[in-house]
Write a structure and sequence with these properties.
Layout lengths: L1 H8 L23 H38 L3 H6 L13 H10 L3 H10 L1 H42 L3 H11 L2 H21 L10 E5 L4 H14 L6 H18 L8 H10 L1 E2 L5 E2 L6 H4 L6 H9 L2 E8 L1 H42 L9 H4 L13 H14 L4 H12 L9 H17 L1 H15 L4 E3 L7 H14 L6 E8 L2 E8 L28 H11 L19 H9 L1 H18 L7 E4 L4 E4 L12 H31 L2 H12 L9 E10 L2 E10 L4
Helix pairs in contact: 2-4, 2-6, 4-5, 5-6, 9-10, 9-14, 9-16, 9-18, 10-18, 14-18, 16-17, 18-19, 19-20
Amino acid sequence: MLMLNHFQVLNDTWVSFPSWSEDSTFVSSKKTQYEEHIYRCEDERFELDVVLETNLATIRVLEAVQKKISRMSAEDQAKFRLDNTIGGSSEVIHRKAIQRIYGDKAPDIIDGLKTNPAVSVPIVLKRLKTKEEEWREAQRGFNKIWREQNEKYYLKSLDHQGINFKQNDTKVFRSKMLLNEIETLYDERQEQASEDNAAPPSGPHMTLTYEDSQILEDVAALIIHHVKRQSSIHKDDKYKIKQIIYHFIPDMLFARRGELSDVEEEEEEEAEPDEDGTKKHNGTTSTKSKLLFSHTAATQQKLSNCDDAYNLFYVNNNWYILLRLYQILCSRLLRIYAQAEKQIEEDAREREWEKNVLGLKREKNDSPAIQLRLKEPMDIDVEDYYSAFLEMVRDLLDGNMETSQYEDQLREMFTIHAYIAFTMDKLIQSIVRQLQHIVSDEICVQVTDLYLSECANKATGGSLSTQASRGSAESAYQRKAEQLMSDENCFKLLFQKSKGTVQLAVELLDTEEENSDGPVDTEVDDVPLLGCQMLSLSMFDSICTKFKKDLSFSKIKQCAIFFLRNLRRIRKCQRGQEMQMREAKETAKKSSEGGEDSKMECMFKLNSYKMVYVFKSEDYMYRRTAQLRAHQSHQRVSTRLHQRFQAWLDGWRKDHVTSDMAATTYKWLMGEAQEGLLPCRTVCEPKIIHYQNINKYKVTYSTTL
């Protein structure tokens, strides 16, 4: 019964056949080129094994037939015949083996084996054995080739992300891609606010995390290593870059500053005495005057010791791109470091298991694959993987290592987790280019100088508990930054430290741009060809007047000055135009009757169309329906605030005020406890203020002594 059950589940009908990736319509089953190569090697190995085993099976059958014939007499040999199985149990296997050797002559050979086996069997058997030896020799050569190819492509076949990662990651490093990323988030928030007919919410568009500050030292070492070998960067610029990497960025991230001792020693050696006895560095200022962030060291040292602190920095495009790339480099180095630590733990755990369970003590580079010579021993210990990785990155940056060798070595160490380090050299090169631009571009230098000047005003951060006291200074810092970066994006960077981790909140501010210094005269009919040109005020007014009657928006969709997301807003404005005009007339009438004039004053610059408000002139503006909404929600808001205050007061009174203290206070309030004061009488007058019952106490003093 057991044998019958086995026969019922045996698969003697279906045949396994390899399916190549181009034959499959499913993307998930798409194989990489390295996987296909290994699959083909295995398929070739399988086909050769089938050929050898088929030939060997035919040899065994014919050897048995030959032994049987040798025991026959001559008369019996002449009468002896073979059937279609040629002495075996299969009609196909032996026929295939003979056809593989004799080709087109195979039918004649098979017919000879069946009709005259005494003569044909020894000849065919000899030929089969000869081919067996040839194919076995070829198999040994093929096994060596297949082993080399499998060793070459095995780790690559496991790495599914590394193939396309390099191409896609190179695009991510581009400045345009990084700016488009946050600008897209900004546009989505603006569109969502316009659809909800509400003001755009404030807050960061992107939040980045720095989990480990110790990794900053390795990041700085790699960047400065590449900076030192750039002959195109001036020596003074290199020194400024080192200050940014060793001083400024660690200060922003509440980390320990790096050392500049090696730089100072180099400059002291190259310094030449002047006529008055002072030293100059190639005609530039002294080292002490070059220290850009020396006066911020004490403040940042205090913040680094606080558990909750923040730094505020308003930057332009180049600074944002630099810090974005810097964060990417930190996160990738941290992932490589974490993977190296994980592999150290796994190796130690495996050694401990072999020692306790198997009673073996395996030395380094003593794995079974190395003992069988299936794998070359590595010169790097597991404990040194991370330091070896950093050295490999330096060699790659210096051109002392090929990219293919670098990637293969990474795969040997970190297996499928190595792909994030394939573009490490491109990332560092992009960071160095941004640093070079920051220390040489005028706007970038002004952004840095503005930050240093605002540090003295305590507008660049501090403790979170005292953030409210710096509100006015930070607002002034923001206005100055927006004015400085009026021609490009202005980013608000907030570095916040909490529980040992640092988070960077990035917000793209809404600022007006100046695209030209003079008006551009253009005809209204040429509007679709304007592109990114600026329109004059009269030009824009005439265009809006022209399209007010075009409710189908057929021309507006082709006009270059309109966004499609604003079409619904234009329709809504057209529908409520009469209501707005009527309310405007009523407002003007009330203003004229009341004799109130607007205090807000502003000026327009005709060349740039920029509106500038006059200092100390202000007005309060509110939305058309703001008063109605405020009146409708006044009771609900007042009740909620009163309940919150009452709940807090009850909790505080429960913890800090006893019943005797409450009774004494009530007697004093009602004038029952004289305590040497003038005779008086307290009267309680209940009232309702802001929808809440309020007790108003009135004290009447007695005139008699």
